[in-house]
Amino acid sequence: MIIACTNGAVTRSCPFPSLGRAERPQQGGHRHVALTRSPGFPAARRPWVTGTPRARRNIVTSMVSKSLQQQMQDLEVAQPPAEVMVPQPEDLRRTTDPAQQAQALPKLIVLDLDNTVWTPELYQLRLPRSNSPKANRDVSLFPAAVDILAEIAEGEKWEANGTRVAIASRTHKTGWAMSLLQQFEVIPGMTIHGLVCGRGGPNLIEIQTGSKIEHFKRLRQNSGIEYSDMIFFDDALGGRWGNCEPVARELGVISAHCPNGLTEGIWEDGLAAFADAKASGDPDRFHAVVSENGVRPMRAGNAQNKAQGNSRQLAGTVKMWNEQKGFGFIAVEGGDDLFTHRSALRGGLTSDTIALGMPVQVQEGTDKKTGRRCATSVELVGSLPPRKWSTSSPAESAAPVDAVELPCLSLCQPFAALLLNGVKTIETRNQDILQPFAGQEVLIHVGRRAWPDDIGWRNQMAAAGYSAQEMEELAALPSSVRKGGVAGVVKLGETVTSASLAKSVSGGWPQVEQGVLASKEDMGRFATPVESAAWLVEPLNNCKGRPAVWSQLLSLRALPSVEDK
Which tens digits make up the pLDDT trace of 370-420? Predict the structure, then answer.
């Protein structure tokens, strides 16, 4: 690659057009002109040719027709200045005023993990169940991610701007991801976990399956930062598993698509698009996806409806519900009934547990297909009571007269047995699905799959003084109970965040870890104390489990007496 300066204009040509950038040989006799590099990246971390891909494509190559020998002669005569500015397109220009630069920086940088910050994706790893992946052996950071995270950690402009870093990942390998965040260093003595927790606290780490929309809602609530002050980097664009498009469209967060991992080019383009949106003063500019092909505006969706005053919170009751088809109508005060679908049910409310006359809080919005008013979110007000069956004649109902319908939750072994034997006293989940069932009895279903980590719970029990023989006895199911069946019943307490629970108990995190039988890093975000637990008198075997909490019909004879509880 020959770089020269002719009459103040930067020109260059490549004598090795067939080679990629990393393969092009550097000729010792060539004199390289320093190009302007992006602010904040140390020269030692950058290649000898700098500038974004878009900027490099715009450099004039006027010396292609000259021979290599003539180019070298011209270069010797040119004597360029120490640093030459590379012209950039209008949409990539940076402000030179430090005060304006600080205003144009995001307050929250949200990063996906798999195939964005590191590679490979965690689900692709094939490790023994008892092992966790090791940084720089099983999983590696993308080179640009190292530079970017180091710049955020050390850069004065980021500190002056009060910029914080958050994690939003949908991986189901929560324990592995948390372990890697604590292993990878961005600068000596500071891990990625330390960078996030040092500026924003552990409440800015969202590692759980589900919608990225929900991740961002919690990040906004916990950080107090508006969507228009955030920027998001993710490798999934759109479609069923996409992230960038729905986050940009629905929430108005500038989202940068990195299909091949985080790169300096997409990082700079994302920051440029964010600065442009801020400078424009137009809120619609934040509903955009940044990619190698430029900035693509997205439809504002729900955020636009809210801005126009078309969305509001209303109190109502369930007027009609078709459990088979999964839709119904909500009666609201001072207005027409609102149509709703099971996809709008929130907070542990499901198509099985919703009932006529139930008090709910709804978010009124517009149906995307019909344009009519509807309830886009339906949440239960208060606790969900168990529904008992009562009929004058067995022929009038498919359910037996002596039956009760209770909420049911599935647990893997050995935690199901340890919970019902009173050893495990706290259940944690990454979502607050147990909040509606505070003070209620919930059935415990034994999952068919065993928990992959067979060491963590043993360590916690050993620390509490249990012997190896006691561990085996307490973790075993009774002979009458099989995997895939309903085995017991528990009474749940109030659901709070695990961090709040640790602050409220005298023993702090160690006490919570012994109640959960898991380390702080491996437990869920929300904790629910178990007030009492008992095995069923007659277990219901061969019962198919379901996700989250579902409604299960059970004979009253199977329930233990008050003395047994």
Answer: 667 888 888 887 655 544 433 333 333 444 446 788 899 999 999 999 999
CA distances from 186 to 18, 145, 168, 246 (A): 35, 9, 18, 30
**What is the structure's pLDDT at 542?**
80
Is 0.90 surpassed by the pTM of this model?
no
Alpha-carbon span 401 to 349, nearest angstrom: 25
Contacts of 322 (CB under 8 A, 6+ apart): 328
Farthest CA pair distance, the chain? 105
Per-residue tokens: 310: 């078309």
Chain centre distance of CA 197: 16
User: Nearest CA to 267 among 422, 40, 114?
Assistant: 40
Bridging pattern class, strands 164-169 and 108-111: parallel
SS3 sequence of 104-159: CCCCEEEECCECCCEECCHHHCCCCCCCCCCECCCEEECHHHHHHHHHHHHCHHHH
419: Cβ contacts below 8 Å, ≥ 6 apart: 411, 427, 444, 488, 490, 530, 533
How many beta carbons lie within 10 A of that of residue 24, not counting itself?
Answer: 15
Helix axes 174-183, 192-200, angle to 10 degrees: 90
Q: What is the Cα–Cα distance from 374 to 191, expressed in whole angstroms?
A: 46
Q: Give every CB contact of residue 518 below 8 A, 6+ residues apart in sequence.
A: 428, 456, 457, 460
How many Å apart are CA 234 and CA 252, to the nearest integer?
A: 15
Q: What is the 3-state secondary structure (H, E, C) of 14-26?
A: CCCCCCCCCCCCC
Q: What are phi and psi of 457, to 5 degrees?
A: -70, -35
| Helices 143-154, 264-280: crossing angle, 10 deg rounding | 50
Q: What is residue 3's DSSP assignment?
A: E
Alpha-carbon Rg for the chain in angstroms: 29
> What φ, ψ does residue 90 adopt, rounded to 5°?
-60, -40
List CB contacts of 343: < 8 A, sequence separation 6 or more. Answer: none
As a whole number of angstroms, the distance between CA 565 and CA 531 comes to 10
- Per-residue pLDDT of 17-39, as tens digits, reads 333 333 333 433 333 333 333 44
Tokens of 187: 């600068």
For 249, phi then psi, to 5°, come to -70, -50
Task: For residue 102, give the nearest of 228, 278, 327 by alpha carbon.
Answer: 278
Closest CA to 295 of 145, 106, 92: 92
